[in-house]
Amino acid sequence: MPSCYNIHTMAFSFFTKQKLDGSLVLLIDIGSASVGTALVRLVAGKPPHILATVREDIPFQETLSSARFLSGMLHALERALKKIQMANKGHGAPMHTFCTLSSPWFMLKSRTIRISEAASFEVTEKILETFLREDTERLKEELKDTLPSQDIEIIEQKIIQMKLNGYEIKDPYGQTTNQMELIATTGLSSQRVIQGIEHRISQFFYTSSVHFGSFPVAAFSAIRDIFPEEQDFLFLDITGEATDVSLVVNDILSGTVSFPYGKNFFIREISAELKTLHQEAATLFMMFLRDTLEGKWRDQVGGVLPHSKNEWITRFGKALALFSGMGVLPRKVFFTADTEVAPFFAGLIHHAKSEFSLGEGFDVVHLDQFVVAKYVSFESEVIRDPFLVVEALFAGKIIKK
Question: Is the peptide bond before 104 cis (omega within 30 degrees of 0)?
Answer without folding.
Answer: yes
